[in-house]
């Protein structure tokens, strides 16, 4: 079964409704015709996005992941070059 993507405006309005209401999230979700866990995840995501430094942390995490990937590639390249150098040294001597 496929997933349905709700428009950003609908998600923002739903989160605002949860925040301004005293009703339970499950009740609001039922009234909106969406799954309560979906609505909970939207509220959590909005809270994370509003947290100071959230964008900075995610940018740092992305940069760290990219750098770790680059380091792994460079180590692999170095190992290949080391083996190639050893092979050609044997060919020259032998």
In short:
The chain is an all-alpha fold. It has helices spanning 8-20, 25-32, 36-50, 54-93. It has two domains: 1-50, Arc Repressor Mutant, subunit A (Orthogonal Bundle), CATH 1.10.10; 55-94.
Descriptive tags:
94 residues; mainly alpha; 4 helices; rod-shaped; coiled coil; Transposase_8; Transposase; Homeodomain-like_sf
Beta fraction? under 5%
Task: Identify low-pLDDT runs.
Answer: none
Q: Total helix count?
A: 4
The number of strands is 0
Biggest sheet layout: none
CATH topology of the largest domain: Arc Repressor Mutant, subunit A
- Radius of gyration of CA atoms, rounded to a whole number: 26 Å
CATH architecture of the largest domain: Orthogonal Bundle
Shape, per Cα inertia axes: rod-shaped
Overall pLDDT level? 89
Please provide the ordered H/E string of secondary-structure elements: HHHH
- CA distance, first residue to last residue: 64 Å
Number of domains: 2
Task: Describe, in plain words, how this protein is organized in 3D.
- The protein has 94 residues and is mostly helical.
- It folds into 2 domains: 1-50, Arc Repressor Mutant, subunit A (Orthogonal Bundle); 55-94.
- Helices cover 81% and strands 0% of the residues.
- It is built from 4 helices and no strands.
- It is rod-shaped.
Topology readout:
Blueprint: H1 8-20, H2 25-32, H3 36-50, H4 54-93
Protein name: Transposase
Pfam families: HTH_Tnp_1 (PF01527)
InterPro entries: Homeodomain-like_sf, RD_transcriptional_regulator, Transposase_8
